[in-house]
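Figure 2 data, in text form.
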Amino acid sequence: MANKEKGFRAGAYAVIVAIVMAVVLVALTIFAYTTRYTAFSPEKVAQAYTDAIVQTGDGYNSYKTTLVSKNGKLKYGDFIRNAYMSPYVNDGEDVKQAEFVGTGSEEEQKAIDTVYSTMYDYYVELLNTYGWDDYDNMFNMYFAKLVEVRHNVYGDDFMNTDYMFGALEANVQTYSDYLTGADEVLAADNKTVLSEATVGVYEKMFGKDYKLTAEVTECKELSAEECKAYVEAYKERITPIADGGAARADSLGVTDTEDNKAKTAMTDAFAGLNHADEIESVAEVTVAVKDESGKVNVNQKVNVVKIGRSWYVDNTNIDTSALYLAK
């Protein structure tokens, strides 16, 4: 995929990223407000999860409606920090950054553009190879690669969570723009074009005025016996993952110090994935995805589980590959 298709422009990407992050913050605020009510309905949770992926290919943010987001006291972002970013974070160790960092110079803008562009190609490769159903490989391989790419481009070994989230979320947004198209982005003078408008893949596939809909067609709550059997199967899937945090930390050289309990945090993050003793009910939901032209007709099965008053998608038992329509 050429850089032109991605909407990249050297020297302007730092500004675009700032705009993207502002949009993300607004979106997260809206998300927090709406999901407060969505979570009470198995149909709405399954529909929101499916719709998020099919509209923009955003399997990353769709995890906010899954069991991954129900991790003890950890929010989704904190889970990512503790479980996947901690092996690479060194911003508290007086690691020097490249001299151009923070200068706003053309050299810095070019470095940002190069890292984000290179990582975007890798992000798409990971998406096509693993997909977000396998978030473990997506996070593990993405962040390991980011450290390598930053070192090659910047010439330093600095890494913190802000930089890691910035790169990943910019790549997620770029993939969304690739699917849906993007509006022209202008500088503060309302004249200088930072990023040209692009035509999305969906528009090419389904027509200029395409419309994708995700509608629940069936929702079946399991009986007590069926629920018990489902939870047992879930426990078998999740236990090896939840119990593997300490070994994973050891393999990556993550340790506890007096000032930083990184190994404990990683161990607890994975342990918090196990909700076998909390699941009260299970529902099987079918979400039909269609477009008006009839070219798309996907029936997505989504298993949702109830903990307390809220429902969550069981991300350990789902295949969303059919929702990535551009593939």
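Caption note: The CA atoms of residues 290 and 303 lie 20 Å apart.
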